Amino acid sequence: MTFRTKVFLIFLITVLASVSLVVYGVTFYTQRAFEQMDAGRTHALEVQFGKEFAQRGETIVQQVENITNADVTVRMVLDLARPNADASLYLHDANGAAQSHGLDFVEFVNSDGTLVSSAQYPARVGYKNDWVTSSKNWDATGAFLKREELPDAAALSLTAVRTQTVGNKTIYIIGGRRLDQNFLASLELPEGMRALLYKNLEPTFVASALTDANGGVPQAETFQSLIEQIQKQPQDLTKTISWNHDPASAETFHAMPLKGRNGELLGVLLLGSSAKELVLLKREILKIAAVVSLAALVIGLLLSWWVSRRITRPVEELANGARDVASGRWDTKIDVRGSDEIGELAVAFNEMTGTLAAQKEKLVQTERVAAWRELARRLAHELRNPLFPLQITVENLQRARQLGPQQFQEVFTEATATLKAEFANLNSIVTRFSDFSKMPAPEFSKVNVNEALRDAIRLFEPQFTALGKPHIGTEYFLSDSLPEIDADSELLHKAFQNLVLNAMDAMPAGGTLSLRSSDGGDTVRIEISDTGKGLTTEECSRLFTPYYTTKQLGTGLGLAIVQSVVSDHHGTISVSSEEGHGTTFRIELPKRQGGTVIKPKAEATPPEKESERAATATD
Amino acid sequence: MKFTRLSWLAATNAAIVALACLGAQAAPPRYGGTLHIKLRASSFSLDPREWAPGSLSSAASEKLASLVYDRLVTLDDYARFQPALATEWTHDATSRNWQFKLRSAVRFSDGSMLTPADAVAALQSTLGKGFEVTAAENGIAIRAAHSTPDLLEQLASGRNFIFRRLLAGTLLGTGPFFVTESVAAAPSEANPSAIKPARIKFQANEGAWSGRPFVDFVEVILGEPPLRQLLDLQVGKADIAEIAPDLVRKGRQEGLRIWNSAPQTLVALRFDDTLAAPASDQIREALWLALDRDTMANVLLQREAQPADSLLPQWLSGYAFLFESPMNLQRARELRAAFPAGVPGATQPLRLRVDAPGDLFKLMGERVAVNARQANLLVQVALPVSGNNSAASAGGLHLFAWHYDSLSPHSELEDFVKQLLDARDLPGNATDPEQLFAQERRLLEERRILPLVLLPEYAGIRANVHNWNASPWGDWRLADVWLDSEDPMTSKAPTSPPKNNPTARNPGARP
Q1: Mind listing the pLDDT tens digit for each residue in B170-216?
Q2: Which CATH number fits domain A181-274: 1.10.1060.10, 3.40.190.10, 3.40.50.970, 3.30.450.20?
Q3: Is the CB of B249 less than 8 angstroms away from the CB of A89?
Q4: Which ipTM did the prediction report?
Q5: What is the DSSP letter of A266?
Q6: Which domain holds residue B488?
Q7: Cis peptide leading into residue B116 (ω within 30°)
């Protein structure tokens, strides 16, 4: 991963983390605010329920007192006080009183507890209501919750009891109103809240006993565990119920037990608060957060890209500069931006490359002088060799003028032959130097390296086995699966030829020449080894310097040509040698030459005749 | 025996007739006017063959049919059989073969003559399989499969009217009125959820053999709620209206003239055969002992009903006083405690279906449930599915109302058994009171039928209605009734008999 990518990712993560943190914070505090608001609303509703309960109780007490003080009730008491009074006369009075006073339940109970009249359950007339006579202070008692027995089922009522006494006769007037959906409908509920009433009139949970302001509650059985919990231990409880997979459907219910006069659990009021608003707000926040995050992501991307680019560009320039220096361009300069640490680094780099360039220039000058000296020495040496015979021959001719014509003729003939030979020698020397200076650019085509190696050996095989010459054996370690590579077959042949010739020179007493080829992935590896006397370390280091030679008659151009060919093929050449054990040249050539036109094999330049090739080999 | 049974009725009616005569002397009879009547039954049929024995709707239908049709004989206020369409009758010693001589010159409301064939056709369809009715010279002959000494009681009551069935299905009668308009109950146009009650209008039959009735028209509206009927009576929208027993006291307190018949309706419980023996015997016995009939009659029905210990009322059977149904809660609880597990009424409630319509019967059903609870029996009241009291309806326990249609105790008991107890035949001599008593006692001891209360029929009568002379068994005799001219909108007829009326009515001419 590049430095720029790292910087980019760090910036990006920082931006996203910041946005996420803000979103989480907003959501968290919104939820807390909603919960507090919800708790406040629930409490307000509890208070409202309490007030409504109390107000309705007062109303019922007032209505029951109105019935108690009505003339018909007083007359009833007077009538029932008579011996053998006919209580059946008042069978329907409770019903009439209930209708005229707007009560659901009205009962008249005789002083002994016998039910005289009942609006809600007239069939019970004549039976005892002992719970009424057990209390003596009904007139000071307010309304209370009561389980009301009805013919078909029990009901929950808010009931008040009053007494009417005339003389010694007292009757009890019980009046109440049903606590049901109508009561719930009278509660003013805030948006998103609802009130449910569970009438706890059966020993076990009954789904139909749960009602809301509209009647039955769908999926009432969902409340079973909550109700049963309160039935076991009557206390306030809160529970959140999810109606389906959508979190917006969830409702939080605050359950309050409703107890009767003797503390018995008669009902449970459930105040439900919908989570819809909160969930919708959360979703809205998340939606906004997503948009903000997206925008932040884009901005972060751009910003990160810009910042990372700004930070890494000088570094990259430094790296490129260093790379250029490494590739030989020692005079590389980079732009200096700013005066910060990176800027100082750029200045230092430029100073370093300046110094290096100056050193290199000096070195080149020195090497150039050395090369010229070496060239002069070689030229002097090469030219001196034919010049000396020429000088001798000319002097012989001068001395031969004093001989007889026949003798002169013999000398002259011999002298001209020598002169020709030496001039040819001079011409050859000049040609070799000329050839080296005119090394052509390679023309690439598909070349089988193994074939090229074998061709090079085949040229010299007669000399390896010639009589009177030391025997040189050859060994092949060529990889059969080696692919054809992009190369100039002629130049490659010339390079191999020079290396073979070099090896032959290194083995004057004979030896073994080994050739290896192997697949190096993107490259092909070639090794040419001899078993000659080997080279010193210094010789190895100067081996590819032009005009450097360790041989008596060498021009010092052979290996320079080899290196030039390998370099033109974008390959590398190295030498390893152990004195007394031989030398190995290792060439690594790329299989493909990128960006170069590759001629088909047929169009490739045909190899020169073997004799011509041999003539071009230079020691 | 029959005179013994009906003697108290005779005495009662003598007093009523005397009072009526006094009333008649105080104001001369007057022809004309429309008599407005309200009945509780929501439906009716004037075809006697369609009536279900014992049903409350059939009782209302019989009341309406008596305006249109006549019988062969009738029973007068002194419990004597009087000629009606039959002027003479004889029977052989076995009381199987009866001869009836038909009244001559009797015409149907369309003017056609009554023939023996008409009487034969009508009675053959109403008397049933045990009788063969044939035409005879100037009359008809009835041959019974068994000795039928109570044939006259049967012919004087129930559905044994004489009528003619026309090809179009219309029934003609020789009675004092004929039908001019009949509208069935239908949803109200103004409010489709409300039912507009059925209405039937009768017109005086000028050519009635018994004389023209005093009123020109009788308009009957059926199916009105009991309280509405009472209010209509009070505000003058009705001249005669049935009063529910639980509203009788209210009516009296408000000064209404209330007439009541002898007990006409039995309210009782019936067990299905769905309960397996022997548990069913214990349940029946326990419930029978837990029932508080006195409170039902005296408190819930405010003394306007009688506790019932028998299937037939005292006035009909003469031996009903011999039965008793003592309440014994302690014994009932003991029986309940011995119930095997899983018996209905113990852990699972015994469903009590109220088969009779109206809040009164529902209230009684609830009282039965309360009584049962005192004996630790669980009884749950279910509302009626329809207004019928068919024995075929299932439910474990039923509360039903049975209206006594016949003046023959044997016939009534036979109908009762056929309708309510698996259509079994009543064995033994039909008219022997001792055997009838034994049969009824056996039925009661089975405890499949538990009598609760006997309800008389109550009617409120406005002060403008004169010569109200209803029989104790519920025959209203509306042909004898005449109206005051206090309401000019409803009465335009002259006080004297119509000149074109060949048979001016003589009050009391009909027995």
Answers
A1: 899 999 999 999 888 888 777 777 778 889 999 999 989 989 999 99
A2: 3.30.450.20
A3: yes
A4: 0.76
A5: E
A6: 1-69+175-239+462-511
A7: no
